[in-house]
Amino acid sequence: EEGRGYQGDPKRAESWYGFGDSVLAPAEGTVVSVSDVHPDEPIGDLGQTPPYGNHIVLEISSGRYAVLGHLKQGSARVSEGERVRLGQRIAAVGDTGRSLWPHLHIHVQEGPNLDQQARTLPVVLSDVFLMRNGRESTPAEADLRRGDQIRRIED
Hints:
Layout: E1 22-24, E2 29-35, E3 55-61, E4 64-69, E5 83-84, E6 89-92, E7 105-109, E8 120-121, E9 124-125, E10 128-132, E11 135-137, E12 142-143, E13 149-152
């Protein structure tokens, strides 16, 4: 059925689009923190682990930190202090933390701490298909909003 985030049994994480797919570094940077020990939650259960569950925080420029959350348990391929390059595989999409189903959470903030108080900054993507309100487009740049879906334009 169009608009669903899964194919098959919705209670199985593997049925959800993206579950287990590679998470790529959104920019060059240095790994500030990694959490990789929390189990993936049952679909539909709001987890009790830290809000972002398994996560990676990257310092992508002075005072700018990319947070990637809800990562699959055991999938982190980087360590604190490691330099990463744009597009490098760093983890896999999971369903950890306060999440009802598998997805990747990403935002950029002004500090490295995950205390919910950090000021977030706009994220603009390029070279993507954007699905917003049921319509697909290929904007030169996409500023994401709640509910948007994106996929990479294949070369």
